[in-house]
Amino acid sequence: MKRLLLTLALVLPLVAGCTKKENEIVIGEYDSLTGSDATFGLSSNKGVRLALDEVNAAGGIKGKKISLVTLDDQGKNEEAAAAVTRLINQNKVVAIIGGVASGRSKAAGPIAQNAKVPFLSPASTNPDVTKIGDYVFRICFIDPFQGFVMAKFASENLKLKKVAILRDVKNDYSVGLADVFAEEFKKRGGEITNDLSYQAGDIDFKAQLTQIRSKNPEGIYVPGYYTEVGLISQQARQLGIKVPLMGGDGWDSDKLSEIGKEAVNGNYYSNHYTTESTDPSVTEFIKKFKAKYNETPDALAALGYDAGKILAAAIERAPDLSGKSIRDELAKTKDFAGVTGKITLNENRDAVKSAVIIQVDGNNRKYITTITP
Amino acid sequence: MQDFIQHIINGISLGSIYALIALGYTMVYGILKMINFAHSDVYMVGAFAAYYFARWMGIENNPGISSLITLLLVSMVCCSLLGLVIERLAYRPLRNAPKLNILITAIGVSLFLEYSGQVVFGADPKVFPSVINDFVLFNIGNVELKSFDVTVLVVSIIAMVALQFLIFKTKIGRAMRAVSSNASVASLMGVNPDRIIAFTFVVGSALAGVGSVLVGMKYPKIDPLMGMMIGMKAFVAAVLGGIGNLGGAVLGALIMGLSEEMVVAYLSSTYRDALAFGILIVILIFKPAGLLGKYSVEKV
Fold first, then answer.
1. Model pTM score
2. In CA terms, which of A310, B17, B24, B106 is 20 to 30 Å from A106?
3. Strand partners, B255
């Protein structure tokens, strides 16, 4: 049995490679369809499929249909690298839509770069991902951008002058957001009253919060993950701190309210997209997504959808199907009206786009505003 | 000044939680001369037992003193049973083995509980129900004293006094002291050391159960690895106070809680865990028996 499976595993891709038709454009995708963060990968994959199905329904690209080959990386870096190698060598894809996690993009990106196959990640936010090379792109904003967004929101919309920072020193993501927030907030004439730290896994934050309380800031920026943020909000309210807390997309979980209860209400965080947006392109996307999959799309589904659309548009514009032509057209993506905002790729192949600010209200996530760079 | 007082209150409140767990370490050490590293994981299981019981009974919807007492009892019973099982299956077969073997077994049991906990309960954190309402007892200016902080401190002091009474004023306590000083001689005098040791595990684990419910209510995030750090800190507290000494465990735990709070408040949270182990090293160098401990040569 084992031998049979092994033979099949070896032969099937060859057969699949052979069946490639001339009137088809093959796009590769790898994602975590199983494994610990499978929900992210499945969402993103659904978004990509929806986008490419729409392109096919509208007549495809240059008279050819797009066929999508999706491989599972099981949430593992080495599987992602293997998947990309297979997509390039066996499936002969013209371009690859990458996975969600930054770590796996870092493992798989260099392979695409060496083979000169354009690689587009929907959701890898780590700044280093696009530094791999000129064939690697992303359509999500990078981590530090959220720090910028919140600083702008705090000073322009909330009109805050004094803000304290509480960052997770163990977490690159949190440190990145906090640094950019501090820099930008000071540039706008604000004052950082305290810049304190905690470590993921801590449960007691009263020492830091007591210190923050003595400086009377008008807000606290906590760019961490929801588990600690829930406890921090609760302990802040227990100490009588009534000012709002602010954070990033690491807050985006139902567990936030479960842990923090009513203490998290009224706090703000930045995110990629909101289902509450009244933008017609967003409402239509949600309608189509619900019709196809019978569920509400989350931020990763929206990012996957945009990735599919942007790649299809680039292939459409490209004079031929060579990696170089598609790459050049991808790099020219400008003011693309996506579900997750207006997307322009800059010279670093990162997306320059807007972010949304969400306010926590029980289990509801109230859309407050969109912040553009 | 207000901040300083607040820091002291926060520190005592944190320390009293360490105290409840440190008492378990110190008790088992006092009788068996072994470190039960699985103690902090018994505490974790207690928290989950209370969590699932509360969900099953719908206790989260009617908070009050009676719910608290029910949960405390459930957690204490579960922890005691687990303590008994661990003692019977993992430690008793090694009773006459070298100390090192028992130490390694204890670490093994601890890892076993932590990682099977992740399989059984799931690795994502759960939210402990709020069983009683936390309210402000009094506040002066910005300084607040919460009912909860006082409850935890009072419970750990009651536990310490009750243990002290149990050990020095009761028959079973006398038996415990006899086993502690020399198990084989004690058995010649009609004491059954196995029963006394099992009893010690029951009492120690029950204390961990009390601790788990109190911690669960104060910091409502519980997960299968929640015992790791708090267990290490409580162990350091027990060594600091003089392991085997009940008063020492509470004293050590309060010192730990206060110094941790002060370090985070006036230096940086990065030093929080480094401090605990720094204290351990300094104590072992300068006063190996701990603050209240008596010095004796120990072969491990």
1. 0.75
2. A310
3. none
Cα–Cα distance, A350 to A337 (Å, whole number): 16
A183-192 pLDDT, tens digit each: 999 999 999 9
User: ipTM > 0.90?
Assistant: no
Q: What is the mean pLDDT of residues A261-282?
A: 86
Is the Cβ–Cβ distance between A194 and A210 less than 8 Å?
no
How far apart are the C-alpha atoms of A237 and A261, rounded to whole Å? Answer: 11
Torsion over CA: B64, B20, B124, A221 (sign): positive
Q: What is the phi/psi pair of residue A85, to 5°?
A: -60, -45
Cβ contacts of B284 within 8 Å, gap of 6 or more: B239
3-class SS of residue A96: strand
Query: Distance of alpha carbon A116 from its chain centroid, rounded?
Result: 24
CA of A183 vs chain B CAs: smallest distance (Å) = 21
3-state secondary structure of A5: helix
Residues 6+ apart with CB under 8 A from A43: A297, A298, A300, A301, A304
Q: What amino acid is encoded at B95 in this protein? A: R
Contact criterion met (CB < 8 Å) for B10 and A206: yes
Q: Please check whether residue A230 touches B, CB under 8 A.
A: yes
DSSP state, residue A262: G
Predicted confidence at residue A18, as pLDDT, reads: 47
H helix and E strand count, chain B = 11, 4
Residues of A with Cβ-Cβ distance to B226 under 8 angstroms: 203
Over residues B186-226, the pLDDT tens digits come to 888 888 888 888 998 999 899 899 889 888 888 888 888 88
Strand partners, A343: A336
For A286-336, give the secondary structure using H, E and C: HHHHHHHHCCCCCHHHHHHHHHHHHHHHHHHHCCCCCHHHHHHHHHCCCCE
Arithmetic mean of pLDDT, B46-58 = 88
Q: Does B92 touch chain A (CB under 8 A)?
A: no
Task: Name the token pair of A47.
Answer: 């978004």
Best to test chain A binding among B10, B144, B232, B275 (most A CBs inside 10 Å): B10
Which residues make Cβ contacts (< 8 Å) with residue B50, sequence separation at least 6? B71, B72, B74, B75, B78, B128, B209, B212, B213, B216
Among the partner-chain residues A202, A210, A259, the one whose CB lies closest to the CB of B220 is A259
Nearby residues of A251 by Cβ (< 8 Å), 6 or more positions away: A225, A226, A229, A267, A269, A360
Coil vs helix vs strand at A8: helix
- Which of B221, B229, B268 is facing A197, going by the closest CB pair? B268
Identity of residue B235: F
Which residues of chain A have a CB within 8 Å of the CB of B229?
201
Residue in B130, B152, B221 to test binding to A, most A beta-carbons within 10 Å: B221
Q: Which of A268, A272, A31, A316 is nearest to A150 (CA)?
A: A268
Is A352 within 8 Å of A142 (Cβ atoms)? no
